[in-house]
């Protein structure tokens, strides 16, 4: 790792001030991605601002229609929450399949969403469930949040405070995990919501994206057969040693059908 | 910078560089070399310790992030009276190790797994040992040891 300065604020305001004082400061939440990236010298922040001591950023609140999860809430806290499991089982399932047990004890929802790794699981939940990202400055709809590879709508000095998930009528997340990393080679969140059907894909493109053609087909007939012939365009998909774009396009359709069948 | 935490029941404070990993702090500053470093990339789980009661990979946490925390390493798992922790005893009895390199991490992960998922099925055990890699045993004896250790922990009425 390159050398860096370290700060451990206890309030959001203090963290924002610290991040604003340096050109190359970086926030660290759980750090399960960031620290390994620093070891590989893929990033060189001059200052690390650790959000881990900001108590108000952690916690889960369920009010019947919305599940609100604080940005610093760990994956296992979501996965093991009986309240989340009752309200949105698909969200608890998704959190419980991220990385491994130890990573789930440290990694956070805010860190995952802010990083927008193309293969991360949480972006599929945020987009697929039509969540709202609450920051220290504003509320951002999921549809406006994920911009590109590791790029979100967050501005410099803007921190995620919480994610608001509307409770769907039914939903499911199914992923095909890369066997070594457990990242999604492709993953699909499908949800029947008060505003119609949403279907979001992670792992396959530069960032999480919706598939309107599948959503329209499912709106008329929420069944696996309804989307059997609906393919995503392989030209837009990722190509790496783990899978070709054509393979990922095929996976998306298979996983979407499985998700529809699993929705509850 | 100064960091302070409780390690195996003892309060410790040290002056470290900010990039110091918790593995480096435990091994190099405190001499607790039972926490092994296998891959140093967050994959193998050999460095698993308990941070405020939860299994984490110490190579994926800065010492600074553990400020004020309660850390338990393999050295601090047993009660200190010379008896092994039930999970350690079970790994010995069930031959849950061969070379032993992954074992400290396996045992620490296993204890947290039992605390998190009491009466876990074989499937749950195997899924939740995903973050611990053993290249000797083939996992059969590890899963058997974990179940035996869980029973032993239940008998003792603690974690």
Walkthrough of the structure:
The complex is a heterodimer of chains A (264) and B (159). Chain A is globular and about 55 Å long. Among the domains of chain A are: 1-51, Uridine Diphospho-n-acetylenolpyruvylglucosamine Reductase, domain 2; 170-262, Enolase-like, domain 1, CATH 3.30.390.50. Chain A starts with a strand and ends with a helix. In chain A, a hairpin with a 6-residue loop joins strand 13 and strand 14. Chain A has 264 residues and is an alpha+beta fold. Chain A is 31% helix and 25% strand. Chain A has a five-stranded antiparallel β-sheet with strand order 4-5-10-6-7. In chain A, strands 11-12-13-14 form a four-stranded antiparallel β-sheet, with helices on both faces. Chain A has a three-stranded parallel β-sheet with strand order 1-3-2, with helices on one face. Chain B folds into two domains: 2-76, Ubiquitin-like (UB roll); 86-156, DNA polymerase, domain 1. A five-stranded mixed β-sheet of chain B has the order 2-1-5-3-4, with helices on one face. Chain B is α+β, with helices and mostly antiparallel strands. Chain B has five helices and five strands, in the order E-E-H-E-E-E-H-H-H-H. Chain B is 34% helix and 14% strand. Chains A and B meet through helix 2 and helix 6 of A and strand 4 and helix 3 of B.
* Largest sheet report of chain A: 5 strands, antiparallel
Looking at CATH, which topology of the domain at 170-262 in chain A would you report?
Answer: Enolase-like, domain 1
Beta-strand segment tally of chain A: 14
User: What is the level-2 CATH architecture name of the largest domain in chain B?
Assistant: Roll
Helix content of chain B: 25-40%
CATH architecture verdict of the domain at 170-262 in chain A: 2-Layer Sandwich
Morphology of chain B: globular
**Most residues in contact, chain pair and counts:** A-B, 29 and 31 residues
Helix and strand pattern of chain A: EHEHEEEHHHHHHEEHEEEEEEEHH
CATH class of the largest domain in chain B: Alpha Beta
At CATH level 3, the topology of the largest domain in chain B is Ubiquitin-like (UB roll)
Per the principal axes of the C-alpha atoms, what is the gross shape of chain A?
globular
CATH superfamily of the domain at 170-262 in chain A: CO dehydrogenase flavoprotein, C-terminal domain
Structural class of chain A: alpha+beta
Cα(first) to Cα(last) distance of chain B is 34 Å
What characterizes the major β-sheet of chain B? 5 strands, mixed
Beta percentage of chain A is 15-25%
Rounded Rg of chain A: 18 Å
Poorly predicted ranges of chain A? none
Q: What is the helix content of chain A?
A: 25-40%
């Amino acid at each position: 790792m390159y050398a860096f300065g370290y700060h451990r604020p206890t309030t959001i305001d203090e963290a924002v001030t610290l991040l604003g004082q340096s050109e190359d400061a970086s926030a660290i939440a759980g750090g399960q991605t960031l620290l390994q990236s620093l070891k590989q010298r893929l990033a060189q922040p001059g200052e690390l601002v650790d959000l881990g001591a900001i108590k108000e950023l952690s916690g889960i609140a369920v009010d019947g229609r919305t599940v609100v999860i604080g940005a610093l809430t760990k994956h296992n806290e979501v996965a093991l929450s009986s309240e989340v499991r009752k309200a949105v089982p698909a969200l608890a399932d998704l959190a419980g399949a991220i990385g491994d047990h130890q990573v789930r004890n440290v990694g956070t929802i805010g860190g995952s969403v802010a990083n927008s790794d193309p293969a991360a699981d949480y972006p599929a939940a945020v987009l697929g469930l039509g969540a709202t990202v609450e920051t220290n400055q504003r509320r951002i709809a999921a549809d406006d949040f994920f911009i590109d590879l590791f790029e979100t709508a967050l501005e410099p000095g803007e921190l995620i405070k919480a994610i608001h998930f509307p409770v769907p009528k039914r939903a499911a997340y199914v992923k095909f995990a890369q066997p070594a990393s457990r990242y999604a080679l492709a993953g699909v969140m499908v949800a029947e919501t008060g505003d119609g059907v949403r279907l979001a894909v992670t792992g396959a493109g530069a960032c999480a994206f919706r598939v309107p053609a599948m959503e329209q087909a499912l709106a008329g007939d929420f069944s696996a057969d309804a989307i059997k012939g609906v393919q995503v365009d392989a030209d837009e998909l990722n190509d790496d040693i783990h899978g070709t774009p054509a393979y990922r396009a095929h996976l998306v359709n298979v996983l979407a059908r499985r998700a529809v069948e699993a929705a509850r | 910078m100064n960091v302070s935490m409780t390690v195996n029941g003892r309060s410790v404070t040290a002056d470290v560089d900010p990039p110091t990993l918790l593995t480096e702090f435990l091994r190099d500053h405190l001499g607790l070399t039972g926490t092994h470093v296998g891959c140093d990339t967050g994959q193998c789980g050999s460095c698993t310790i308990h941070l405020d009661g939860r299994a984490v990979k110490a190579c994926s946490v800065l010492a600074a992030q553990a400020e004020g925390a309660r850390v338990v390493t393999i050295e601090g798992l047993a009660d200190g009276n010379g008896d092994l922790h039930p999970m350690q005893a079970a790994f010995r009895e069930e031959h849950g190790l061969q070379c032993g390199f992954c074992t400290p991490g396996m045992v620490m992960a296993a204890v947290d797994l039992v605390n998190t998922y009491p009466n876990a099925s074989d499937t749950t055990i195997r899924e939740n040992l995903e973050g611990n890699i053993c290249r000797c045993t083939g996992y059969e004896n590890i899963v058997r040891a974990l179940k035996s250790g869980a029973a032993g922990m239940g008998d003792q009425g603690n974690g």
